[in-house]
Each structure stands twice: as C-alpha cells, then as structure tokens.
Amino acid sequence: MEKLFKLKENGTTVRTEIIAGVTTFLAMAYILAVNPSILSAAGMDQSAVFAATAVSAAFATLIMAFFANYPVALASGMGLNAYFAYTVVPQLAEQGITNPWQVALTAILVEGIIFIILSIFKFRETLVNKVPANLKNGISAGIGLFVTIVGLKGAGVVTTDAYYDGKAVQSSTLVKLGDLGSAPVVLALVGLLIVAALWHFKVKGSILIGILATWVLGIIAQLTGWYDGTSLIPDFSNYHVFGPVADMGSKLAFHFDFGYVASNVVNFAVIVFAFLFVDLFDTVGTLIGVAQEGKLLNEKGELPRVGRALMADAIGTCAGACLGTSTVTSYVESTTGVAEGGRTGLTAFTSAILFLLALPLYPIFLAIPSFATAPALVFVGLLMLKNITKMDFNTDIADTVGGFLAIIMMPFAYSIATGIMFGILSWVILKVVTGKIKDIHPVMWVAFGLFVLRIVTIILGISS
After folding, report:
1. Which residue, of 101, 212, 321, 424, is most buried by count of CB atoms within 10 Å of its CB?
2. pTM of the model
3. Does residue 24 contact residue 333 with C-beta atoms inside 8 Å?
4. Rounded to 5 degrees, what are φ and ψ at 175?
5. Cα-to-chain-centroid distance, residue 404
6. d(Cα 17, Cα 111) in Å, to the nearest integer?
7. What b-and-e string marks burial along 302-321, b requiring 16 or more CB atoms within 10 Å of the CB?
8. How do residues 355-381 score in pLDDT, each as one tens digit?
9. Comparing C-alpha atoms, which of 37, 87, 129, 39 is closest to residue 320?
10. Where residue 302 falls among pLDDT bands split at 50, 70, 90?
C-alpha cells in the first residue's frame, strides 16, 4: 500500500483511507438508483443501465486511484444524465431517429476522445481559464435549477397546467403545483426534508439514506393502499447475481450510431459540445474543490498531477459510453471522504470496490421509484445552485448577462445546451458591442460560431 499510494508521504494510514473510501461511496451511491431511473426515460433498459453505471464508476475510479493517486471517485454525472435523457434524446426522437439514445452515446464517446486529446496537449486547463467566472458559475447554477425541476416533475410535485375544454388543450400557466394529496408528492417532499435534516447533522450518506427512507415510506404507503402505482417491493423471483451485467452486454454495450453523424454534422457537433462544455467545468471545479478540502494544492495554488486526474476522467467517459451510460465525471461528494482524512488513491480504490460489490443488489436499487430519487435530484440542485453566490452582478455587463441567461434558460427552456448557448452568445455579442472584442479568446469564438450555426439550422427548419 505504501509503494502504491505513498501513504506516509501524504500523512495518512490504510485504516483512514478505507474509512474515507466507504464514506465517499455512501455519499454518492444514490447514483445507482437515480441514473437507471433517469436514463430509462430515454428508452434504455433499466437493469442494463444499473450495471453500466456501477461498472463504469468502478473502472474510472480505479484509474483515478492508480494513475493519478487522488481520493476522487467518479460516476455518471448528475445534470449530464438529465441533459442526455430529457433534452438530447427527445430532440433526436422528434427527428424520427429510431434509437436516439444510441446517437447520444456516440456523442459521449466522441466527447471522451476529444477530452483525451485535450488532456494529452494540456489544453483543458486553457479552456477553463479563458471562460469568465460568471459564466462558469452561472452554468453550474443553471444546471442545479434544471436538475431540480426534473426531480419535481418526476415526483409530480409540479406538473403541466393543461386541460381539455372540449375543443382543444388549454393552459393558463406553464406549470402548476401537483396533487398534494397523492402519495408520490407527499413522500417526495418528506424525503427532501429528511435529506436536509441528515445533511445538517453531517450524517454520512445523507442523500442515500434519504432515498432509502422515502422508498421505505413508499412501501408502507403501498401496503396500506395509499400508493397504487408500480410495486415498490424488490422482485427476486428471477434473480441472477450478474443478470444486469448480461443485460448490459446485450442491450447497451457498444450500441453506437455513427450513421447519424454523417448526415447531421452540425446537430451532432452541438450535442458533443454541450456535453464537453458542461463536463469540462464540472470536472475541473470538482477537482479544485476536493483539492482545497484536502489541502492537496501546492504553494502556487496548483494541483500536482492534474493532467493525470483529467485523463482518468476522460478515459472514464469513453468507457461509460462503451458500456452504455451517460458521461462519467469526478464527483464533488468525494469531499466527504477527504473530510474523513482521505488523501490518496487508496480512498478511491475502496470506493471502486464497493461499486462492484453493489452489483448483486440490483433488485433493491431498481425497485426505488422516481419519487424516492426526487429528493436527491432537488438537493443536488440546491448544492449546485450555491454557485450563484460566487457570481459578481456588478461587473462587466457581458459577464453579468451571460451568466444570468445561462441560469434562467436551462430550466425555462428545459435544456442545458440552450442555457449554455444563450450564455455564450450574449457574452460574445455584448463584448463586441461594448468595445471589448480583445477580451474574446479564440475558443469562445469557436463556441459562438457553433451556436450561431445551431440557431440557423433551427430557423431554417433543418433541425428541431
């Protein structure tokens, strides 16, 4: 262990690292219930997605452990999975694509390959440094709101305000409050309060415990007849230890669609860019946050071996796409393990092993309903929304408006990509108008041009 992870050099022990790894896993294990629930909405097999989520998380985290030696765990990213299921797939479906999720997986594979190339040439750090802080924080906060509305909608807490008047479907407002007397709505709200209370008392795995508690309350509601939806009791009737792994191999793994790329270059490029952009700042922001928590930065404020950490993230993304899940990225929940003393890759190694050990428990994770995972989505949305406090609204007007539009357009247009698009377009335009064209880095011009092409294709009806 000493030779592999340099424990003494980092002032830690095997026991401390293992406890930290267990803590990190408990803090992020909710993804094993949330990700299958979200991606199944895209038409993907729930059991197969569960296996892909667990295996890709373990694989990527092992690379982080042995290649970068950092206490950072990885898994399918929140926000990115919602963009996959609720934006990309529906848009592709409207174009008549038979299996739109295959195109989305192809985009993630391409994104991962681009990340590998950028990591080799140390270009990812340059990209991050050239995007204004307000825009970065606005994008993170906007994703938080987007994830929140996805969770509320999935539990029925908010619903579409539509009714049929005998002639046509009418709507007085865009959304309205759901049925406060229904079990899913009540239980989702109770679950959110449970997570919040546990978080306040710094209970390890508070989000996961909140999900499980809400699920158990749901089972009680089902047994008493209050809840009459799909059964919430795990089904072990056709149990096979590695059943989900077999499903992953036959139903998801390497199911790419490169045919779409050739005939829809601009659309595909926009999808890839949105995944790329969000994952870029999510990863770097997470690594910096974990490093600050664990005091891993050097005297210059830099993170040693950051290139290796970014490479682990990029390889994990490619592996996740091949296995059949949305973008794999570094998890900010890794800070919980660091807070317990985790300082090396042994922490990540422990978390990775626990992801693999969770595979035989798939009937439990797959029985958890959307109203039980809603508290996790909403609370993660809260944590991401906190980035708005880092924004400066009294600074340059381009930075202010760009960040603001990124925040509001994601939930209101129900698209992460749209929020990024409006944020970047407004930022570049206002920089030009205010005579600060020299502040625009070439990478921002590339993004601007790509989004202009996207708007043109929409106006001309080439794409939705």
Report:
1. 321
2. 0.74
3. yes
4. -135, 165
5. 21
6. 32
7. ebeebbbbbbbbbbbbbbbb
8. 999 999 888 887 888 898 888 878 888
9. 39
10. low
